[in-house]
Queue: 3 jobs
Job 1
Amino acid sequence: MHKRTLIAILIAFALTFAATAMWTAATYEREGDPDANVIEDSGSEAGTVREQKKGGNKVAKILSAPFKAFGKLFGHKDDNRLQRMSEKDIAKFESVGVARVQDGRSAAGQKLSVTASAREHLAAGRESLLAGRINEAIAELSTAASLDPKLSEAHNLLGVAFDKKGLAERAKDSYERAVKAEPDDAQTLNNLGFSLYQNGNYRAAIDKLKRAAKLAPTDDRILNNLGLAYCRMGKFDEAYKSFARATGELTGNLNTAKMLERFAREDDAIKYYEAARRIDPNCTIALRRLADLYQRVGKPEQATAAANALASISAHANVAMAGR
């Protein structure tokens, strides 16, 4: 019995640490947009629509966030992190030629013939993008777009590839060409809208994302991106509506509160965390943040109450585990 109790306590500690790490993961340097990273830590999808391999486990990605944060704490360096590419490098790719430039981290793909069509280059570029061979993907997708300027998917995926290389302006140009070729595609509009958002053009981003949301009213990623853009415009009520449409009222409140914290608006963040707590009194994320924020704004009694509620939940969880 003593052994089982000890194991239960260790499991509870590990879960508590994981939850804390998941929350703080966004504070460490990560790839991707910082705002999008914040809400993605709560399981919300945001950012561009990228080509992904089938069978990807969203839950596994969410649960792995704390352990990635743990690795960063101990100075783990990702040797596979994509390196930024220069404008000179890009110039080599933007031609109709079929020569491939390898990433150095991956095996060479099969070289296409000089008579290959735009769609064959598109397929090769998509495959390279999925495999993480970004330089090769840019070469193939640039060729596809050159051979057929109206091939929207080539421009769209080229924008994704440029995003991965940190070339935001190039990505935006590619997304704009994709939208011009196919103006009513929700995912292409989303990618352009998010690119505009990353470049600080929030009004234009909202315009594109609202159009995308009308075309795909149940798409979580589009709605979350729209929420992020509203946050940057200071329209937090509108942001909450978008977040709530995407992931429900509980997560909508949490995401809005997180963004308000990023803008150092503690009192407003508290309101949304309290709203989340009313929906789920046992919401440990809301209670943890309330305990900290109430202390920060000079309300120690409310901070103590939130901390006690959190401790009570942990105690009940320990008892439940020990009794199994």
Note: The two ends are 10 Å apart (CA to CA).
Job 2
Amino acid sequence: MNLQFVVDGFLTGAMIGLGAIGVTLTYSVLRFANFAHGEFLAWGAYATLVIAGLIGAAAGGDIASLGPFSFGWPVLVAGVAAMVLTGLLALALDAVLFRILRARGNAIVMVMASFGASMALRSLLEFIFTGAPAYFSRDIQIAIPLGAGIRVTPDQLLVLGLAVVLVAGMYLVMTRTTIGRAMRAVSENPTLSTVVGVDVERVIRATWLLGGALACAGGIMLGITVQIRPYMGFDLLLPLFAAAILGGIGSMPGAVVGGLIVGLAESAAVPLFGAGFRGAVAFLLLIAVLIVRPTGLFGMRE
């Protein structure tokens, strides 16, 4: 039996899971669904592309690939810088839009505003870079056979490794740092957190920064393994929310597991039912789980 869909599912699930962490953090801390989150993936990928191009131009334009990978070291350096910039973009969006609406205490208005922000960010990206796909590298890689019909490229192995490192790092931030514990406290009870001295505004800023940075990482991974397009974040938006809800809103491990489940379900649907059913199978699975456990796999009943 060809198990290639398992590798493809883990790759897709890793990218979805990273983005879903930002979705679940935003929802649990700020209490609204941010539909502009998908655009952070696209902006992060394009920021990486631009910065890597500038570094390459400054270095003379003749940069060899990094070991067996299809890209050179400028992409890694640019990726770190782009994660910071995407976090700042998310923070800026909060400052000019969501903070004002948050003060009015209307979550529905914030959700609708996030729709508008999503369309504005996506249209601006398409205006600047056009709708043509872009790539970090056009080098062709030879896949490595692993047996059972599974073949992977060095780029795919790197993406999986980076996803594990980022998820582990995020787990340590949430469990071993002061700001992580404060974010968990605010997600549980914002009013009580304020009473005991937690700086809620600082927590909100950290949430936007971390969510934007992780979305950027997911966009970079998608750009490395597939391609970069203005609509790449929009195409992943529904799977991001499906993963966050499936895992349980507010649960970071749940977002990761939900992302892997959605990714595997989508990949398994292709050989079983055809590419046209790829998205439908994931959401049928989501509905089935929510019927049995409405709080999601890792969610807690309030």
Note: The mean pLDDT is 86.
Job 3
Amino acid sequence: MHLFEHTDYRAWLKEKAEELKTEKPYFSYRFIGAKLGVNAGLVARIFNGQAHVSLKHLSKLGKLYGLAGSELEYFEELVRFGRAKNQGEWDRHFTRMHTIRGERFRTVADEQIEYYASWQHNAMRTLLSIFAFKGHNYKRLGSQLVPPISGDEAKASLELLEGLGLVEIGADGFYRVADRFISTGDKWKASMITRFQKEMVRLSGEAIDGVAKELRDVSSLTLPFSKSMIETARERLKEFRQEMLALSRECDEEDCVYQLNLQFFPLAFVRSVPGGEA
């Protein structure tokens, strides 16, 4: 697999090292470590995803692997992407990576990122599980969403879902939801899930003004709590989500798509003060 098709630099380093070792038997963890000035154990931990490459070793490591020009530039951005600690850094480095490699090396990862980048793709997929659509009137399809999207946006969303294998055309000519899910194990996928969740929270705020009160339930509760009970609360919320899924399966005729957001977060912590008084 070409370097440009990778989004995990450590997986590529390990894969490429094994390839190079067939040509150069001396290309071992010890050899790589000696060239970088680190021990072989650290190299092994990096290759196994347990540690990161130091930024000061980027250029030297890239050249050790025979990288130059755009490949070396991409590799350096790929490492920074893997080391990113927040959404802003993640976005900046991934955008740079995409620019360097261009559309020729567009991967499934790009499509998965697009899926989580906008609320409408997840909503569209769920809508297609209850709305009969044969691929003709995209304007009508887009108008089903809340808020509605254009026919062009609906078509693009459907094409993305089809490309990812999340929807498919059945024998009767209608689109149907495929029994497939996007894994969220990789770091970049977890980052996109965070973005998706923020988008859902934003939509819930807009629903307060845009959706009739009888068609929504938006409430808040501020209460004293104990940190020792947080895991218990998380388990109760998990049970509630399962109850809502079960309730969804009991529906006789599904005619709408709903989003359920549960937010449980701290507003204050009582911290001890020297002397025992505030």
Note: The chain has a mean pLDDT of 88.
